[in-house]
Structures are given as C-alpha cells and as structure tokens.
Amino acid sequence: MKHPLIQSLLAISLSLGMATTATANTPSVTSSADGILAQVNDEIILKSEFITASQAMAREYRDRGIALSNAEIQNLTMDALITRKLQLGLVNRAGFSPNENAVNRELLAIASKEGFDNLADFQRSLDDKQAGSYAELRRQIIEDASLVALWQAQVRPRINISEQEVNAFLNSPEGQKIPVEQVLIPEWQTSHILVKVDDTQSDAMAQQKINALYSELQKGADFGAMAATYSDDTGSATQNGRLGWVTDGQMVAEFEAMMKNTVAGDFSTPFRTQFGWHILKVENTRQRDMSNEARKDKAREILFSRQAPQAEEDWVDELKAGAYIKIFE
Question: Which of 30, 77, 123, 285 is the most buried (most CB within 10 A)?
C-alpha cells in the first residue's frame, strides 16, 4: 500500500528530501553560514544536507510540472528534514532494523539499473568515483526501510475501515464502477497425521513410527481413525486429522508442496517439516470464488488511500508538538 510520506521519502531518498507542510522562518540557503541550520531534539540539520535536499526537492516538483519559488522550496525542504529527523529519532529509540536480505535486494535492483550484475562491482564503481559512496547509499536504504516500518507501526493502526464503510462505498455510484472480475483460488480439503520430533522423541524414532503408520495405511487402515489414535497434533486429532479447506500460503512450504502433489482421495508418503513427520490426505479439491472479496479489498484500498494522508498529518503534528525544534536565523 502506497502512502504519501513514504512515497516521497523513497522518491528522493538519496538526497534526504520529501514533501510535507511548509515551516515558517526557514533560513535561506544563500544567506546561511556554513554549519548547523537547525536542531531537532538531539539531531542537527547541516547546511550541506539542506542544500542537497533542496536541490532534490526542486527537481521533484519540476518533474511533476509544479512551479515553486526558491523560498517555497526551501520552506518545504526544512519542514521535510525536520520531519525526517523526528522519525529517525523514533526509529533509533525503537530499534527498527530492516531485513538484511531486503536491503541487499534493493541494492541489487539499483545496481542492475546501473548495468551491474553483482554488488561487488557496483561498490567498486561507486567508491572509485567518490570514496564512501556505497556505504552512504546502503545507509540511506536502511534508513528508508526503517521509516517504512515505522509508518506501518505508527500510522497504519490509526486507519480503521469498517465493513459498513466498505459496503457503503461499494453501493455508491463510484464503488459500482469497480469492475467485477472473477477471482478463483484453489483449495484442498486436507487431513494429516503428525508425529512430533521433540525432547521426548528423536527424529529417528519419529520416522520409524510414521513409517509404521504409513504401512498400515497402505494395508487399508482408515486414515481418520489412525489420525485420531496416533497423531501428535491434538487439535486436529480430535477431528480425525481434519484440517479443513486449505489455501496457498497457509501451511509451511514442505506441507504445501506435498499437498499439491497428492491427488484427491489419496494420501502422501511420509515427509518432514519443522514440526516433525507427517502423512497427509487430500479429501477433495475445489476452486473458491473470491470475486466479491476482491472487490471489497479494492474498496478498502481506495478508502485507505483517502484516510492515510490525514492520519499521517495528525501523527506528524503530534511528533512536532512533543519535540524540541530550533531553527537558527
């Protein structure tokens, strides 16, 4: 889900710029002495980062076909940097840390756009042009990923869209324009027998037990009765091993792969997951029509995008109200 603050952050992340509400009494780039332009709690805004962000801000508005004066650009830039410093302060205190693999994927995507197929060559190219460039790029990506996580944690919970709102929107003239497209998802009616691997039962013991159960099933033993008697999954064992209708992504990868490769009415060979050893049975399969749910999801997206800017603005206002902010003349 896109949201204004994060979209702007990512658009000019390498230059520290983003578009928010203007702040009064912003110093001029040309008239300010080199050094500190503002203090935000324990953070400072330097003239060098202000100039870089101002240039990025000007490019962003120019690319969008919006004409702004230098003073307007500078006001927007200072307000954006203040907001970013406040958010990064929260990130640091909360200890948000993006996934290392996600950071590397983002770096690889940038490297690919620049014509590189690995990060080592990309790093050498950047650092040959200016020492430390790759480390700075990586830092910016980590910051931006952390700010996205912060937005999800701080702003998203403020936006609550009820079922009544969704239905009212769908019944409105605008909502009725959402196209009705058939969405079918596969489902498997599945049962299983689990033999756990834990402190009381080694992997070898569990495998021996599941193989014995499999042998009995091959001889014609009733799957449900075997699950009720021998399965270590107490929740499903009381239901003769039944798990109900299962969709993509509900089960761990090994279970899902075996389920998809088992024909309806048959049971699988024993297989291992993080929980232990299993045998599963696919009772039936079907295609479930999710068209109505898909229209509701689209309606929620539209309503969310309309409510997000106000929720974000309220959050930023609260951050500023509780912060020490000083802009030096």
Answer: 77
**153 and 188 both lie in a single domain:** no
Q: What is the pLDDT of residues 211-245, one digit of tens each?
A: 999 999 999 999 999 999 999 999 999 999 999 99
Query: CA triplet 122, 128, 130: central angle to 5 degrees?
Result: 105
pLDDT tens, 14-62? 343 333 333 334 444 444 446 899 999 999 999 999 999 999 999 999 9
90-114 residue pLDDT tens = 998 888 778 888 889 999 999 999 9
Distance from C-alpha of 222 to C-alpha of 216, rounded to nearest angstrom: 9
259 lies in some domain: yes
Residue 272's domain comprises 184-290
Give pairs for 160-169: CB < 8 Å, separation 24+: 161/300, 161/303, 161/304, 161/307, 165/303, 166/296, 166/299, 166/300, 166/303, 169/299, 169/302, 169/303
Pair 95, 10 in one domain: yes
Residues 85 and 149 in one domain: yes
Does the residue 167 lie in any domain? Answer: no
